[in-house]
Amino acid sequence: MRFEVATSVADAVRLLAAEPGTARVLAGGTDVLVQLRSGMVEPALVVDIKRIAGMRDIVAEAGGFRIGAAVSGAELGEHAGVRAMWPGVVEAMELIGSTQVQGRATLAGNLCNASPAADSVPAMVAAEAVARVAGPDGERDVPVAAIPSGPGRTTLARGEFITSIFLPARPARSSDAYLRFIPRTEMDIAVCSAGVSLTLGADGTCTAARVALGAVAPTVVLVPEAGAALVGTTLGTEALDALAAACAAAAKPIDDKRGTVAFRKKVAGVLARRATIIAAERARAEA
Amino acid sequence: MSRIHVNTTVNGDAVDFLCEPDETLLDALRNRLGLTGSKEGCGTGDCGACSVTLDGRLVCSCLVLAAEAEGRAVGTIEGMAEGEALHPLQQKFIEHAALQCGVCTPGILVAAKALLEKNPDPTETEVRYWLAGNLCRCTGYDKIIRAVMDTAADLRRA
Known about the structure:
The complex is a heterodimer of chains A (about 290) and B (about 160). Chain A has about 290 residues and is an alpha+beta fold. Among the domains of chain A are: about 1-50, Uridine Diphospho-n-acetylenolpyruvylglucosamine Reductase, domain 2; about 175-285, CO dehydrogenase flavoprotein, C-terminal domain (Enolase-like, domain 1), CATH 3.30.390.50. Chain A is about 35% helix and about 25% strand. In chain A, helix 10 crosses helix 11. A 5-stranded mixed beta sheet of chain B has the order 2-1-5-3-4, sandwiched between helices. Classes of the chains: A alpha+beta (about 290), B alpha+beta (about 160).
């Protein structure tokens, strides 16, 4: 294995594209190092991107925030601006692993690890976050939802890597929330999870909503029917019932040691309902 | 594999070592630098026995490549006491008997110190969540939590 420290985005792309064998991008390393040490992957090349300018920065941009690919969960959580605008994304990221893992783990890494149970991903999909991808053909912006293609697989091509995640601007009375079910209180992987981002009108009517579910399909899934069930309502019982039904219908989970199909379908709706209530409370408090 | 020459700072001292590209910081600390206070429990970032600080941030040294330490500041359990004088947390751990076999203790002390530097007045719940990534199979945790809370109270009075 070769270890290279990239000095620029172009340098990293050149290194990654020139490697004929398996290459891995190293930011926080909380997944890469585990895979490396267990022998799950035996990369010929590891490229550390942390020393590239901007990778560890959170920058205000177009009313939203651009979060460098090497910004850790701890750094994200300490950023008052992102916390205020996207509390659901921050709380999702902060649920990953321990304090020690938070010191290194990143949004971009959680996304590229492509686990269906990745905590930050449903929140980012609900937030309509956009990944900036650098590669041999230049830069492209890709919706976060389009990055994972299956468990452990992404749509990134050889030589490509994510340089930042963009969280867009929000209208007034907007907020988000993320909830997961785990049988413990900490240090576990989601059995099922839900991210909800919504906007309320001045009269309290929901004017926009996006709902995404984790651990109920090969990738995190956006559930447009669940968002549609909320829009135009004041988020009463009927709307929340319709939301939960849409989530249960959209969930296509598997039975495994952490949960059954029936349990996950039910809990998907329960979590989406509760996350909606939290996001709405936050949106009202914001006004 | 060609070895990598790393210049770094450990507990305030400039050090350098040669390491393999896939060597962890934990292995370099233990095997290259003779700092065997940090332990390997799981090797997957679950147990926290290898906890160190990297540029002041609490991390698992088993999940850091040694080569990543280039130009950074590493803090380990060996840097906690000042000569013969134990750090207040170390003293309290002894008073409360907050350890038995001791394998998790260095990691827990490093993690608890990082907590008290960030939050001098943590609630019990905050201490428990902060230390959730430090597993102890002996104590049942209560004595550890009490030792940390007691240290925090003492340091606030100091």
